């Protein structure tokens, strides 16, 4: 086989792969993959493409590792304000393609509303 024929065969194979990818995308793409945006309190967004059937723990650990956070010191919330657990999959958490997850630091403490002088027990 001549080098010209080899080159044309490679070009045709690459075109075939490109066309198949384009047709696949036109047909709806891979429905098992969704795009998720993680938005933190400082407005720094991170974008992830995850499978619907893989636990979110992988994404959470990757995000926390990149931002030097302890995964146990943060809370992930879906667009409706519900907590997202690391052992959930995107499908179990009800996440759809293009959803944004908010991340917040755990805030513990507080005693409630301050007591007025007339309400003190002393």
UniProtKB/TrEMBL annotation:
Entry-linked SUPFAM superfamilies: Ubiquitin-like
PROSITE patterns linked to this entry: UBIQUITIN_2
Domain Ubiquitin-like: 34-110
Coiled coil: none
Source superkingdom: Eukaryota
Pfam family, one: Rad60-SLD
Protein name, per record: Ubiquitin-like domain-containing protein
Native organism: Panicum miliaceum
């Amino acid at each position: 086989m001549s080098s010209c024929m080899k080159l044309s065969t490679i070009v045709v194979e690459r075109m075939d792969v490109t066309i198949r990818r384009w047709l696949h995308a036109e047909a709806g793409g891979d429905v098992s993959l969704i795009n998720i945006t993680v938005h933190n309190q400082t407005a720094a967004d991170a974008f992830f493409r995850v499978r619907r059937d893989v636990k979110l723990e992988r994404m959470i650990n990757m995000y926390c590792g990149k931002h030097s956070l302890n995964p146990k010191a943060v809370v992930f919330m879906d667009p409706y304000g519900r907590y997202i657990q690391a052992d959930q999959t995107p499908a179990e958490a009800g996440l759809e393609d293009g959803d944004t997850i908010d991340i917040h630091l755990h805030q513990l403490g507080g005693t409630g509303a301050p007591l007025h002088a007339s309400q003190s027990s002393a």
